[in-house]
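Hi R.,

Quick one: here's the UDP-N-acetylmuramoyl-L-alanyl-D-glutamate--2,6-diaminopimelate ligase sequence you asked about.
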Amino acid sequence: MSSPRTSSLNALGLISGNGANPEIRDLQVDSREVGPGCLFAAIPGTRVHGAHYVERALEDGAVAVLTDSEGASIAGDAIRAAGAALVVSDTPREALARTAALWFGGQPAVMAAVTGTNGKTSVSTFVRQIWIEMGHAAVNLGTTGVEGAWTAPLAHTTPEPITLHRALRAAMDNGITHAAMEASSHGLDQRRLDGVTLRAAGFTNFTQDHLDYHETFDAYFDAKAGLFARVLSEDGTAVINIDDPKGVDMAAIARARGCEVLTVGRDGGDLHLTAQRFDATGQDLRFEWQGKAVQKRLDLIGGFQADNVLLAAGLVIACGGQPQEVFDTLPHLTTVRGRMQLAATRGNGAAVFVDYAHTPDAVATALSAMRPHVMGRLVAIVGAGGDRDRAKRPLMGAAAMAHADTVIVTDDNPRSEDPASIRAAVLEGAPGAIEIGDRAEAILRGIDLLEPGDALLIAGKGHETGQIVGSDVLPFDDAEQASMAVAALDGRLA
Ligand SMILES: CC(=O)N[C@H]1[C@@H](OP(=O)(O)OP(=O)(O)OC[C@H]2O[C@@H](n3ccc(=O)[nH]c3=O)[C@H](O)[C@@H]2O)O[C@H](CO)[C@@H](O)[C@@H]1O[C@H](C)C(=O)N[C@@H](C)C(=O)N[C@H](CCC(=O)O)C(=O)O
Ligand SMILES: Nc1ncnc2c1ncn2[C@@H]1O[C@H](COP(=O)(O)OP(=O)(O)OP(=O)(O)O)[C@@H](O)[C@H]1O
Ligand SMILES: N[C@H](CCC[C@H](N)C(=O)O)C(=O)O
Ligand SMILES: [Mg+2]
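And here's the predicted structure, written out as tokens:
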């Protein structure tokens, strides 16, 4: 991966209060990673101010520190005593994002980002699939890592700017011309993608999640709105699901800045879904593009995937794709890993799906989306993550009870919390549900319940390959467990 080996502080757009302009050899946001010639970004965190680690960074060779006024008052003396440069910014996270963009000096030429409570991974994956079908070298970047014509693992949905721009530069160096990325609310709030140049930005929907971090719905909305109010430039296009009332607000925010807006929806819009017909393997869609009817096959389970696919098509069009060519790719789209993924089928024909629903709205959406594809009973396995929004737990239980015939409550990444108390919170909203803490056993029991025509949705972990208990990550893959359970049960019955 190529990036500049050195740059001066000023060439990175940063000015030191003492006029120093040292040669910069690396950027770091964590003092533990700092080495000689490094610019250390000492930013205020949720637990501690990074400025408390400046002395350690200076000892390890930092030659410049980017921070805010609070950081300057904590560490200014040490920085001056070491003769290092001190750059003070009111918005140090944004300054870091712009510095990282300049440092790595390149990204795929055509980029789109998508935000919303649910559907970001799905939409960005469909955008990538459409681009690839159209012959472009494309990737999507987010919860499932960098996927497509070039791949790399990522630890976060929207990585912090240094990791993000390193990945974008590496993608570009590997010939990638098109990239679709997820903009998480944490990422937007922390300005992680403020250095990315976007042709288009998309909005899926807005419901409850992450209130542990944002605290109020207003703060959560404002974080997401940052994509249209700040990150998308004025010559970019906002592609908005206007069925969600918050989409109408997002469109107004984008329009007020002079951005073009392309609307998508069932109630109307430039790209307007007018009819859907479901069968066992997918659905037929009828939609209108600027008033002209189009009909296409979609080999995807779940009515909501049509909303995601049309939003993706809108983003590709907003990035310059020719609409008819874009629509012709839709029958070739394939399941997004861990999203309404058919994981196994029992000998009696009953189907087992794995899905990443981990919010109340997603649980309701995923289960109700399965109904038209299922003739018999619908069984759901749900759980909620530890160290995450506690308020969503009973609501997830209630959503499962409202939309499935049988509900099993199990564990999903308890992290540092007591798994039994997380289950108890989910069960508050799901009285009468079956409680089975061990996820493998829950899957086995769920599959054992299936009769001909029934279906099971295993919600919450999707593509994940581990169960996080304490600080350990124990190997666990819902799809693999489902296949093993089907083999064990049908083998026994045969
Ligand atoms: C809650 C949250 O988002 N935290 C992010 C935040 O860390 P923080 O504010 O808690 O950091 P802190 O511990 O207070 O430390 C403050 C600063 O001191 C620095 N430090 C700390 C210790 C040390 O020894 N030396 C040092 O320099 C830290 O690097 C940090 O810059 O800033 C850090 C640096 O940018 C991020 O790495 C970190 O993400 C953590 C790892 C995280 O897990 N975030 C999750 C919740 C997240 O972002 N998830 C979203 C959404 C997922 C979804 O949509 O479902 C995602 O985009 O992945
Ligand atoms: N348009 C949608 N409306 C409602 N629910 C959806 C929609 N798209 C996906 N979902 C549900 O949300 C789950 C997660 O989807 P996806 O991974 O695409 O969302 P995400 O926004 O990327 O999530 P994360 O915040 O974890 O990154 C899916 O498995 C499905 O259950
Ligand atoms: N990436 C999201 C979703 C995780 C889904 C679920 N498996 C959980 O652990 O809560 C998060 O970290 O909140
Ligand atoms: Mg995602």
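Residues 29-32, 43, 45-48, 50, 53, 156-158, 160, 184, 186-187, 190, 213 surround UAG (ligand 1) (CB under 6 Å).

Cheers,
M.
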